[in-house]
Design goal:
heterodimer; A: 60% helix; 5% strand; B: 3 helices; elongated
């Protein structure tokens, strides 16, 4: 039916951009998430720092 | 079948139906009463008015797979026009009636009803009536005059015979109560489409493929200004003269001036009268134009209605308001909706009341299938289920339902080949489809797909790329030692760790603990430092328990090279409590956290929430135009 196709065409034009943007952003977010999980990134985690200074061992004791 | 000769003129007459008591002679129009083997001439029947109905005596058709033949007709006239009641004989010997009025066909047969029938004077349009347990609603009240008859008839018909009838509808049944006899006669039937009757032997029948441009027309002149007029539809009862604005009644071949140049408003229809086009699989011709206006309290608004005729039987309305178009047709199976009902379900769709008001005809041009008049008023209720809208128009005599379907303006232009600019579309119309419903639905589907993918990735990290505990050690801090430095057991990282999680699970309560953790590689002495404050306080105040802080904390070292490691942990214990503290230290290589997963889901949910907001904004704009309140709600929700 021509009316249905006309309505569908108008609706498609309206939604295409948002759906495309959603696909793109969703896939990027998924990729970022996968990488973050692989790297062990955590937005709320407390991160230690690296340094090359030699630590003095033997000051403590095992319990 | 009984054959006889007309006692008046000698012409052969035939009684095909056993129920037929009368026959009108085709030649001399004598009304003949069957009395045993004899025929008695009881008078001359008046001439039928020419109405150009395609049906005639002898036409054949099918109803519910049963063959029938048209054997007689009575012609009735009431205030708004003519209608035919065709007497049909079914092959099983029973007879019924095929009513033909205003483009609608109804097959009905007389039935016996046990319930007492309401008096005609007590009926009003939209009034509910229960007959034998079934609920009907009064849709039309008419007092018609039988003007003529032909062929075989089961009762005597005389010109000038008045018939008061009430039409009722309920579910898909149509009931006519004929008050011309005592007790009243009840006929039950249903509306049928012309094509479904598979009629043959029609008069002047046109093939459906014939374009409306070829529809036969009658040319006449306005009795007031002599301007040329055309009649396309046999159902036409009145014409609005484009030239002088007079409204002319159509009776047979005669015209009568109903309203002399009385129209103050003159408007040129955007779609010219006579325009032909194909819309929704039917060929249409524009035969009438009407401008109607609301007369309810508040701002008045007006809209255009074009009457379309398909060249055969069907009539439809093309309605335009603020650039929005609808194609409306009469509803033969209207819903049973009482006044004030705001919601109902019809044909599987739920409709909601959108507008309630009174409408008035302010301008008419062209043909109409009833005696139209400027100033004609009715109460209108619009119920919507986009792209459909059901409208109920009630006046003092009848209740009419129509179903409108929203059309894109381009479709109207294309259908009628109009090149002049369209009326500008403004706002959101009552039954305008919300394009964002489908968008929202798709975005919700996309959300679930992406969420599923994220879950699969998360589960893969948990189960396939497993995190590995490399150290678990329990340390007890005595309360009397406010500072202590401890070295953990050694552990080995065979390969580079992307992340190394150090978790302190302590038993600290109402105290604080400062923890400086140093990850030290045994051979190179390379150190990674981390500092944490752990504090945990809880208690009961005014009968309510409270808690602050946490007894556990985590620390992550990134990109830790392979090697043999141990932790050097410096504790400083607060003096708020005298309890010893137990710290369970866990070191986990490549831990999989949930916070990223939760963040991702929150991010992905933004899109459906946004599309939902946009969809609801459209609905809010739609309902802003409603006079029954803002009911913007989330139809089509699937999130």
């Amino acid at each position: 039916m021509r009316a249905m196709s006309a309505m569908k065409r108008a609706a498609t034009e309206t939604r295409t951009e948002m759906i495309k943007a959603n696909w793109l952003a969703g896939l990027l977010a998924l990729a970022l998430f996968s990488n973050a999980q692989y790297q062990g990134w955590n937005l709320f985690g407390h991160e230690g720092s690296s340094q090359t200074a030699r630590a003095v061992a033997g000051r403590g004791h095992h319990k | 079948m009984k054959r006889a000769s007309c006692p008046s003129c000698g012409a052969p007459v035939v009684f095909r139906a056993a129920s037929s008591l009368y026959v009108v002679c085709d030649f001399c129009r004598s009304t003949l009463l069957r009395s045993g083997e004899d025929l008695q001439n009881i008078g001359r029947m008046a001439e039928l008015l020419e109405d150009a109905s395609p049906i005639r005596i002898g036409s054949e058709g099918h109803f519910r797979q049963r063959h029938f033949t048209v054997v007689g007709r009575i012609q009735l006239q009431h205030a708004s026009g003519l209608w035919n009641e065709w007497h049909i004989l079914l092959d099983d010997g029973r007879s019924a009636w095929l009513a033909e009025a205003s483009g609608e066909l109804i097959v009905s047969a007389q039935v016996a009803v046990k319930d007492p029938l309401p008096a005609f004077s007590t009926l009003a349009p939209e009034m509910p009536v229960t007959l034998d347990g079934r609920r009907f609603v009064v849709t039309d009240l008419a007092t018609a005059r039988c003007i003529a008859g032909e062929g075989e008839l089961p009762f005597r018909v005389a010109a000038g015979y008045d018939v008061s009838t009430a039409d009722l509808r309920g579910n898909d049944r149509f009931v006519t109560i004929d008050y011309s006899e005592t007790p009243p006669l009840v006929f039950v039937g249903q509306s049928v489409a012309l094509a479904d009757l598979q009629l043959s032997g029609l008069r002047d029948v046109r093939e459906p493929a014939v374009a409306p441009a070829q529809v036969a027309t009658r040319a006449l002149n306005c009795p007031h200004c002599a301007a040329p007029l055309q009649i396309h539809s046999p159902a036409t009862e009145s014409i609005g003269c484009e030239s002088c604005g007079s409204i002319i009644g159509v009776d047979d071949e005669n015209l009568s001036l109903l309203s002399r140049a009385a129209q103050a408003l003159r408007e040129v229809p955007w779609l010219p009268l006579g325009s032909a086009g194909r819309l929704r699989d039917s060929d249409w011709r524009v035969i009438g134009f009407m401008r109607r206006s609301s007369i309810s309290a508040g701002p008045t608004y007006s809209w255009s209605e074009y009457l379309l005729y398909d060249g055969q039987q069907a009539l439809a309305w093309l309605i335009e308001y603020q650039g929005h178009w609808n194609l409306a047709r009469g509803l033969s199976n209207p819903p049973s909706v009482t006044r004030g009902e705001a919601k109902f379900t019809h044909a599987g769709r739920q409709y909601r009341l959108f507008n309630h008001g009174e409408a008035e005809v302010i301008h008419v041009v062209g043909e109409f299938h009833w005696r139209v008049a400027v100033g004609e008023r009715c109460v209108v209720d619009d119920f919507i289920c986009p792209p459909l809208m059901l409208s109920r128009e009630v006046n003092e005599r009848e209740s009419i339902w129509s179903q409108a379907e929203y059309l894109e303006p381009d479709e109207v232009c294309t259908a009628f080949g109009i090149t002049t600019p369209l009326p500008v579309r403004r706002d959101v119309y009552a039954n305008q489809p919300n394009p964002l419903v489908e968008t929202h639905r798709q975005i919700c589907r996309l959300f679930w797909k992406l969420a599923l993918a994220a879950t699969v990735v998360q589960l893969a990290f948990i189960f396939l790329i497993a995190s590995e505990p490399v150290l678990r050690q329990r340390v007890v801090l005595a309360a009397e030692n406010d500072e202590a430095t401890l070295t953990s057991q050694e552990f080995v990282l065979k390969s580079r760790a992307r992340a190394l999680l150090v978790r302190h699970q302590t038993s600290v309560v109402n105290n604080w603990l400062s923890v400086n953790t140093t990850l030290v590689e045994k051979n190179t002495g390379e150190a990674h430092l981390g500092q944490q404050e752990i504090s945990h306080y809880k208690g009961v105040e005014d009968g309510e328990s409270w808690s602050e802080g946490s007894p556990a904390d985590e620390l992550v070292f990134r990109a830790v090279p392979p090697g043999t490691y141990h932790l050097v942990i410096e504790y400083e214990l607060g003096s708020d409590s005298s309890e010893s503290v137990v710290d369970t230290i866990e070191v986990i290589r490549n831990p999989t956290g949930w916070s990223n997963y939760v963040l991702l889901l929150i991010f992905l949910a933004v899109f459906p929430l946004l599309s939902r907001w946009r969809r609801n904004s459209f609905e809010a704009r739609r309902w802003h135009e409603s006079d029954v309140g803002d009911e913007a709600s989330g139809d089509g929700d699937e999130d």
